[in-house]
Amino acid sequence: MNHNDVMRSLRYMIKANDQKMAEIIGLTGLQVSAEAIASYVKKEEEPGFVQCPDKVMAHFLDGLVIHRRGRDDSRPPQPIELPVTNNTILKKLRVAFELKEDDLHAVLKAVNFPVSKPELSALFRKVGHDNYRPCGDQLLRNFLKGLTQRVRG
Which among 40, 50, 54, 115 would be 20 to 30 A from 131, CA to CA? Predict the structure, then answer.
């Protein structure tokens, strides 16, 4: 899924403006201007649209975890995972919003996109694992839609 679409969806979900999004990214040490954020959340057909780089998306997801759950000073900061895949986005959102397996099923069921337990657990496996399954755009899009309904009420 396009990083710009994910960022736009998450921005709406957490009710953040461009400045707040820049602050969330800043929590990981990467400085991005509010103007750059504004260009990332524009739609492709709008003038001023800029493709969101993997690095910015990775820092935003890590910043979202820190923003929602707080910084864990007992451990060293985790290195940024590149490239950012749909599976990575799903994992980071699961951590940021403290979702258990039942919560993930409830989020997907709320938007009429049921996924079996084995299918769902396969999305969270490491890439080389026998049961690893890449997360499709449709699943991620429905997950974001369901999570938005859950967060915004």
Answer: 54
Q: Indicate the helix (H) or strand (E) that contains 66.
A: helix 54-69
Q: Are 103 and 109 in contact (CB under 8 A)?
A: no
**Closest by Cα among 29, 141, 18, 19 to 89:** 141
Query: pLDDT grade, residue 92 (50/70/90)?
Result: very high
CB neighbour class for 92 (10 Å; exposed up to 12, middle 13-18, buried from 19): buried
Taking the C-alpha atoms of residue 99 and residue 18, their distance in angstroms, rounded to an integer, is 26
Residue-level pLDDT at 153: 81
Structure confidence at residue 73 as a pLDDT band (50, 70, 90): confident
Give me the residue spans of the domains in the chain: 3-69, 86-152
- pTM beyond 0.90: the answer is yes
Which of 61, 70, 1 has its CA nearest to residue 30? Answer: 61
C-alpha distances in angstroms, 19 versus 30, 115, 116?
14, 36, 39
